[in-house]
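Below is how a single chain appears once it has passed through the pipeline. First comes the sequence as given, then the structure the pipeline wrote out for it. We keep one example in the README because the format questions we get most often are answered faster by looking than by reading.
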Amino acid sequence: MCDLLDSQPPPSEKKLSRMKKLRRTLSESFGRIALKKDDNGFDEICVTKMSTRNCQGMDSVIKPLDTIPEDKKVRVQRTQSTFDPFEKPNNQVKRVHSENNACINFKTSSTGKESPKIRRHSSPSSPTSPKFGKADSYEKLEKLGEGSYATVYKGKSKVNGKLVALKMIRLQEEEGTPFTAIREASLLKGLKHSNIVLLHDIIHTKETLTLVFEFVHTDLCQYMDKHPGGLHPDNVKLFLFQLLRGLSYIHQRYILHRDLKPQNLLISDTGELKLADFGLARAKSVPSHTYSNEVVTLWYRPPDVLLGSTEYSTCLDMWGVGCIFVEMIQGVAAFPGMKDIQDQLERIFLVLGTPNEDSWPGVHSLPHFKPDRFTQYSAKNLRQAWNKLSYVNHVEDLASKLLQCFPKNRLSAQAALSHEYFSDLPPRLWELTDMSSIFSVPNVRLQAEAGESMKVFGKNNIYGKGLSNIKH
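Resulting structure:
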């Protein structure tokens, strides 16, 4: 190939002249090009002057092509149809996405002409109006809670007046941005589902990183505290269905939540359940890597993780589903360990039986499994431990298939949605699109809990306040 190139005749003077003229034209068209850092610290090529007909005098930012893999340098045009609650109304926007996630917006004017414009956030047309991605675009109303690295406020958007939750993460100059915040933001940006809390905006300043979420009134922990003794059986079924629906969505995308507990399940005023606090979530790669075994709050941590296993998959989350299911029905935590990991395991084995190589192949190879350390228990029917599981058809069977000590025996989220326990729900629930609420189906609604009429459940929620001090 090199020989062929070397044998080519030199370009004529006429061609050279034309090339010089073209180069001069391009240089004048694009003006001055400078390299600067964007908000995330990445290099950007800034085109500060453009003389093309449709972009006269418009500043724009273009990511360098060198940051895009060769096999991704293809632009795909598609219209984004998902409703964005933070989009300014009455703007008809068609978005063109390139494979490096740049977003070019074409606003249609009244004359029918289209003016291309590159932007990062939706914002009103007036330069003095509040804009997305700016700290002054939101008004703090009241503090909802405070954790080890974040404070959560109820807020209000000055752009459209909607209520939001502002998760303000304190940045330490010597420590940098907490990796849990980076992980949560990066994962939630790509998750769009009615049963997953929606991340509206990200605001980065020198002192704080603020994640702006949709505002949800309460969480499942507070809801159960207000209705002690177990929830209405029909409400348990709808809450569980929504939890499994959200988990099935993230598990199909190879994402593990890793911190399922009632505090991280938000409940809206209409009864919609939303997965929240993805600070411990991980995108599970293929082939499998090992992960930290210091995940999941103790009461909802599966026995394999308690015994030191670091090789787990979506079955990790499904143990938590079983614990939450039992708690909603019985009104008390399934395995409320009071001391340490040893005590937690004893409570699990008391109900499910102390494992051995027959019931759990490979258990003897787990780092913290020492047979002489545990009392030898035989497995019981779950109704012997939690009597209310026998009150509703198929509850005990589903709970037993979720609460399996051997991880591979646990039911997946998708399989659990097809369990007979849900057979009396409307078939349309299984046909909904990702962003459609189950309450959009006729006759699907929460029932009044004992002693109360239906009303707004509460004003507080947690949004995952960063209270966890778990290692990673």
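The domain at 219-440 is CATH 1.10.510.10 (Transferase(Phosphotransferase); domain 1).

See the next section for the split statistics.
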